[in-house]
Amino acid sequence: MEGEAEIDRLPLDLLAHIFVLITSFTDLAQASGVCRKWKQGVEALRYAYSLKDLDISRSRWGCQITDIGLYRISLAKCISNLTSISLWGITGITDKGVVQLISRANSLQYLNVGGTFITDESLYAIANSCPHLKTIVLWSCRHVTENGLLVLVNSCRKLESINVWGTRVPVECFIALLTISPALKIKPKALPLNVDASMLPVL
Fold first, then answer.
1. What would the CATH number be for the domain defined by 9-51?
2. Which among 148, 93, 99 is positioned nearest to 116, based on CA atoms?
3. For 119-149, how does the pLDDT look when each residue is reduced to its tens digit (9 = 90+)?
4. pTM of this prediction?
């Protein structure tokens, strides 16, 4: 068709194969907004396995994601290959949706659930499903307790960094976490964790 852009002449399946090379959920979302055909190409990726980064944090979207949305995302073929998930600030989700999503994200290395209302139930699911987790952000997750954190750090042996700013967990818990994993970086750094090794509790 005269005046049609060359990329618009591509068959839908070929366009979808091109989009497979995009590993960022945010970039795919932007691509889907270009035109109807691109949107169809992105939708065809529901059966793709290459997506690695899922960022649906509040700052990126004008609407609130709910547990139903997380459930639908959990059915995508790429979930088991995701290495990074950000749910920062999504107050419309609960443990139910997070557990559904995380239980299939076995390759996860980075997780941001800061600013949500999750509880220890989500931490238990993360501990059971994410053996490769390296970084987790629990910023202002006021409903998690020391029990959940202990299970998480004890199970995720590759965990390198944990952000607990704004939680209601006592400092003694963080000392116990360092007993389990001495190299663990606990943020914020202002926490008074400079204690002698002899003071650490035996678990």
1. 1.20.1280
2. 93
3. 999 999 999 999 999 999 999 999 999 999 9
4. 0.74
